[in-house]
Amino acid sequence: MEFEDDYPKPSWFRMNYRALWGRAYPRIIGANREPSWVFFETFLPILAVAAYVFIYKAWIPEPTMAELMIGFVIVGGAMTAYWMNVLWSMAAQLYWEKEMGNLELFMVAPVSRMSILGGMALGGMFTSTVRAVSTIIAGVLLFGVSLTVQEPLYLVLIFIFTMLALYGMGMMFASLYMMWGREAWHMSILLTEPIYLASGFWFPLKGFQYMLGQPGFWIGVGASLIPITLGLDGMRQCLFGTEMGFFPLWLELAVLIALTGLFIFLARLALAKMEELGKKEGRLTLRWQ
Description:
The chain is mainly alpha-helical. 81% of the residues lie in helices and 0% in strands.
């Protein structure tokens, strides 16, 4: 009893805040302790972006259209940092923590599992932003792309809700990957390149409709279930105009807000299912491994 009086229990909010910051801190500070990571995270992605830039320069004779497509590539290349962070540092994180023996600590901690994953998301978002900004700066300086913000309010809102929806999806996948077990690694590899194609990282989403007609439109609609698809399209509209936009900006923002609520809700359900599985069966995967 004296222990409780001397050391009062912190509030629920304070405990979850500490958990969030505790998981974000090593991801924010870790980049400063290993400068080589910053080099590889910023320099190597430029090579992939440069490849598409040279392809568009060679294939598109009209300078104005070529510059527009190069601008699309620069923005898409910057956003790959967030997608890779969600896929590898969020979706597969709990599985890796289990392999390292840390998962038990997360499960017995008197905090919400979403605060732990939220800290991972916050720290990962910081490092991904460093890489994304570096990619944009390098693209502007090396390839002469001019970025003009035409809709600043929409740009900010679309970026914020894209990140919320994207990392909400990452939280949901974190629990699903735990249930899938060893297939998490293969699933991350499997999803990387198809999402690049379906979400239009290297070309406008409307390109599906131009190439395939009505079926291409429905491909774009299906790809819009992935938050970064509409986030990319909306940010490109805010920077380069609405001529190549797939949906109007207001509709894309509304869908992103809906996806944010949906994925956070599904993440809570998946985390609850994972905890229930661990309590009832003494394991955290759907199969014995």
